[in-house]
C-alpha cells in the first residue's frame, strides 16, 4: 500500500492531465455548439419549407455515412441512424455533389432515377426529395435533405436557395470545419 501526498494524488496538480482535460472539454463544447446549430438549422428548414422531415446525412468514411440529425413533423417519419443504400451512392454521385449538385425530385414515382435509389427512397417513406451538399475545404462533409413523405411536392427556387444557404452556413461554421 502506498500513501500519496495531496499534490501527488490530485490530478489537477499535473499540468499534462490539466491540458488533456481542457482539450476534452474544448472538444465537448465545440460538439455541443455544432449539434445545436444543426438542430436549429434542420428545425427551421422543416418548419419554413413545411415538409415532413429534414435530415443531415454525415459522411464518416469514403461515401459511407448515416443520418445523424433529423427534424420531424411526426415521429413516424424517423430515419435517424439510417445508413442509406451503399450500393447506390458511389463515386459518380459523390463527384456530382462535390461539384455542388442540387437534386430536387418532385415525385420519386415519376422521376427517371435508378431503381435502387427509388427503392431506397420508398423504404424511408420519401415521395419528394430536395438534397444539397455540405461542402467544406476538405470535401463533401454531408448532405442536407428535405423530404416530403405523403405526397409529391414541387420545389421552388426559393426552397432550393434556402437549403443551399443553410448548407453554406453549416459548411462555414468553425465547429463543423474542425469536426
TrEMBL record:
Signal peptide: none annotated. It comes from Nostoc minutum NIES-26. This is Phytochrome chromophore attachment site domain-containing protein. It holds the Pfam family GAF. It comes from the Bacteria. PROSITE patterns: PHYTOCHROME_2. Residues 33-172 form the Phytochrome chromophore attachment site domain.
Amino acid at each position: 500500500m502506498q500513501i500519496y501526498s495531496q499534490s501527488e494524488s490530485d490530478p489537477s496538480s499535473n499540468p499534462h492531465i490539466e491540458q488533456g482535460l481542457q482539450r476534452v472539454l474544448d472538444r465537448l463544447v465545440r460538439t455541443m455548439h455544432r449539434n445545436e446549430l444543426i438542430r436549429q438549422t434542420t428545425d427551421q428548414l422543416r418548419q419554413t419549407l413545411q415538409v415532413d422531415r429534414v435530415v443531415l446525412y454525415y459522411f464518416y468514411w469514403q461515401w459511407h455515412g448515416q443520418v445523424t440529425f433529423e427534424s420531424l413533423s411526426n415521429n413516424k417519419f424517423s430515419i435517424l441512424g439510417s445508413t442509406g443504400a451503399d450500393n447506390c451512392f458511389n463515386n459518380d454521385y459523390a463527384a456530382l455533389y462535390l461539384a455542388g449538385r442540387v437534386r430536387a425530385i418532385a415525385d420519386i414515382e415519376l422521376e427517371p432515377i435508378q431503381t435502387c435509389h427509388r427503392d431506397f427512397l420508398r423504404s424511408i417513406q420519401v415521395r419528394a426529395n430536395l438534397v444539397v451538399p455540405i461542402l467544406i475545404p476538405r470535401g463533401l462533409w454531408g448532405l442536407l435533405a428535405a423530404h416530403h413523405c405523403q405526397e409529391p411536392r414541387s420545389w421552388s427556387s426559393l426552397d432550393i436557395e434556402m437549403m443551399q444557404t443553410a448548407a453554406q452556413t453549416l459548411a462555414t461554421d468553425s465547429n463543423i470545419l474542425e469536426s
